[in-house]
What we know:
The protein is α/β, with parallel strands linked by helices. It is 38% helix and 24% strand.
Amino acid sequence: MYKYSHPYLFQTETTIGNAMSNELISLQDTKIAINNLDFFYGDFHALKNINLRIAKNKVTAFVGPSGCGKSTLLRTLNRMYEQYPNQSAQGEILFEGENLLTTETDIALIRAKIGMVFQKPTPFPMSIYDNVAFGIRLFEKLPKSELNDRVEWALTKAALWNEVKDKLNQSGDSLSGGQQQRLCIARGIAVKPEVLLLDEPCSALDPISTMKIEELIRELKHDYTVAIVTHNMQQAARCSDYTAYMYLGELVEFGETKQIFDKPKFQRTEDYIRGRMG
Length: 278
């Protein structure tokens, strides 16, 4: 019987797990490099010595039971945790040669380059058009015609244009849940980020809407680096190129998705993937 309570239960496995991405993904193919990352909620040690490379123009899925740290890890990548008190990160998150944890670059510019879509669709209380144009207006001064083109481009990339092109002045709240989530994705990519973080983007959606989001994720990786947190093992298997399995704040195993699902290196990874451990 496993004793899950010990914080360094996976010391041997996590040491190997931390090294796996370095072996699989070269520096040349790396978009974000995470080195010796620790994260704290007050005194609680939520992430423990995470070392991971996120590959360019690939989809990396983070899986693991609730509370394992996968969403926390995602929020460190654009310092979203700074919105909340008593949270801190230590280590390195290297992006474009800078450590995002210590850089003096305006955090708004970082979040424009590393966008995030949350579990629950969060359209702004404004029109569909203004939802997409919001970030563009913050960072760029475009003529109206170019702004219109960018809004159409973003909605098209998010596979939503044909559904909303005749009602752009309607409220974003008037859309269905799946449409709202695609609107949020359109809003995120409208500022032309390099990385898109998706935190359980389909958890509140019906199967048809989920299928559309998954198709969109597979398409988006041609232009963006995508990291997704999901509790849906089938979704991770369908959408991602690489999968990271986390438990108790540690990276247990990292590998190509096919390898993780077909032949995981560790028993605990297999137990989780097969549903024997939650």
